[in-house]
Design a protein that fits this description.
The protein folds into two domains: 119 residues, no CATH class; 140 residues, Beta-Lactamase (2-Layer Sandwich), CATH 3.30.450.20. The chain contains seven helices and 13 strands. Strands 1, 2, 3, 4, 5, 6, 7, 8, 9, 10, 11, 12 and 13 form a 13-stranded mixed beta sheet that branches. Strand 11 and strand 12 form a beta hairpin. The radius of gyration is 21 Å and the shape is elongated. It starts with 6 loop residues before the first strand and ends in a 28-residue tail after the last strand.
Amino acid sequence: MPLGLELPSHSLCFSASGAPHLESLGDPFDRAVVTVRMDGRSCRIAWDAKAVTPDALRAAVAHVKSLRFSGPLTIAFNAGEWEMEETYRDHNAAFARINETATTLGEMQAFAASPYRLEKASFEDSTLIRPSAIDLTCEAWSRARGNITPEFLAELDTAGILQRAIILDYDESQHGLVFRFVGWGHGKRFGHDWPVRAIGTRHDHGQPDDSYTRWIARQYDTAFEGDPRRDYIDSIIRLDQPGPSGRVQYERVLLPSRFVNGAPALVAVSIVRPGLLPLLPSAAQGPAKASDDPSRSGSD
């Protein structure tokens, strides 16, 4: 069991061979290293997914396991222009995620204990011949100068995007953002009547998965304040009611906007887009064994 103690703060780097050394003495330009930073009861492990070696990642994970701390464990990696960061209370789930990013074991379904974010400033996908639905949304929003006009909504509808759109604004009486429009496409996961039931309710509670709701609510809040963002989301959405549940991967854009009367609003559009993980070929040896996490399921 992890100890409820504050461990001495330290920062280590693990080289390509797995050898540890103080981060302050390491080469800041060596992309193959894995960094482990311990701060009180929390720990963070970070690496470059395109340069890391199995030995470095395996040694870093072994060190983290030896610390026996009780606080959150954050894992972070970048892959080209993409950056990922996820924080776990369940350390075994974090180790399983690290293994998942490095290799696919057989046909095992990859699940996470909590959602994470992959963020990119400007998205480009060379495999796309035509602009993506997210690209079209951004272009329509720019033409409308951030205003939610009938023409803007018509553009989304014509492109088949309106069904995946959500519009929110701030409700003084409820002291938070509330749903004003929910596209019917969201009913496929949350129930056919959810796009109607959600209208007028706050965005940060009362949805099928409370932990997922609280996590995305913070992103909606910052975007509403004027910080547009474009993310790749990989999450587990758990539902109490019958229906599809499990891993969901989608690209999403949050656009601070205004209604025609000038009142501030937020437009969110998400498009299902699976397939960023695993990041290394399945032949690569992962840093942890599947048995390290007894809660993981076997093959499908």
